[in-house]
Amino acid sequence: MRFLFLIHGDSAAEAALSADERRAMVAQHIEYRAMLRKRRVYVLGEALADPSTSAVVRPGAKQLVTDGPFAETKEGVGGFYVVECESREEALELAALVPQSPGVAVEVLPIVDV
Length: 114
Known about the structure:
The protein is an alpha+beta fold. It has helices at about 10-15, 20-40, 90-95, and strands at about 1-10, 40-45, 55-60, 65, 75-85, 105-110. The protein has a 4-stranded antiparallel sheet. A two-stranded antiparallel sheet has the order 3-4.
């Protein structure tokens, strides 16, 4: 089963980190990705730009495009991983190992195979 880990965090608190703290956080994610690869569960993972740079598109007859994140919140999606696991329990175990950052929360979503 494939799972998407959406990594939410406190965008303002992350922006306030020092350069050394940011480098340490990036290094932890590099180590985390290496661990996922070693376990042969890694599919994909990326950091995302600040949520303030996003746009929301509402398709339809009267398409609407707005700047900024989907919801007004201090949390933003900062990155994601896609993993291939044997079970939901394994996915939850791996999500609990995502490196810490300010306000981090990992949403674990099963990916539907069609």
